[in-house]
Design brief:
Elements: E1 2-7, H1 28-34, E2 40-46, E3 67-70, E4 73-76, E5 100-106, H2 129-135, E6 140-146, H3 148-161, E7 165-174, H4 178-190, E8 194-195
Parallel strand pairs: 1-2, 1-6, 2-5, 6-7, 7-8
Antiparallel strand pairs: 3-4
Helix pairs in contact: 3-4
Bound molecules: zinc ion.
Zinc ion binds next to loops.
């Protein structure tokens, strides 16, 4: 079984969103088209309580994209985004969700960020995604979505570590920072990840 993991196709990550990924909207049609190539499709959704500690606004005197120490982890501070129940947190209307069997929400703990669809950034809690995939006899996963250099990358790295045969679908990802993505992509390939 080969699963497609569709990462964070939410309005706040699309052009005009609170944390827009450049050309993030370009990949939605591609994701719709490739879903038919997989046995199973699941999605992740960034889903923060208001005042989440990954937001610059939660730290006095800090600005978005500054880096701080948060509970012993390096944390990029983001603009407020994907606040639970807000319009920006909704999955994009153009995304075909008919084949998405389950949606795994992440970033729900106010004190820790969660880039990966499997675990928070400190690996303190898991989202249930790994168990779900194993129950469905999934052995290979392909990851697509936003953003390539954060949530796609960390989801793919955790999938590798969990023992899945892991691919990044490059035509169906977009990064916040293209050069940062190239470095992370090299790490992913070194660890045995593949592209398709
Ligand atoms: Zn977030």
């Amino acid at each position: 079984m080969h699963a497609l993991i569709v990462v964070d196709i939410q309005y706040d990550f699309l052009p005009n969103g609170a944390l827009a990924v450049p050309m993030g909207d370009e990949i939605i049609e591609k994701i719709n088209r490739i879903q038919q190539d997989y046995d199973l499709v699941v999605a992740t959704q960034d889903w923060h309580p208001a005042g989440h500690k990954s937001f610059a606004s939660a730290h006095s005197g800090r600005k978005p994209f500054e880096v701080i120490d948060l509970g012993g982890l390096e944390q990029v501070l983001w603009p407020d985004h994907c606040v639970q129940e807000s319009g920006g947190a909704e999955l994009a209307g153009l995304l075909d969700t008919r084949r998405i069997e389950a949606i795994f929400r992440k970033g729900t703990d106010p004190d820790i960020d969660s880039y990966s669809g499997f675990f928070d950034n400190g690996k303190r809690k898991n989202t249930g995604l790994a168990g779900y995939l194993r129950d469905r006899k999934v052995t290979a996963v392909s990851v697509c979505g936003l953003a390539a250099d954060y949530c796609v990358y960390f989801t793919a790295m955790d999938a590798l570590e969990l023992g899945f045969d892991t691919y990044i679908v490059e035509e169906a990802v977009r990064p916040i920072d293209a050069s940062a993505y190239m470095d992370k992509r090299a790490t992913f390939l070194q660890r045995g990840g593949k592209l398709r």
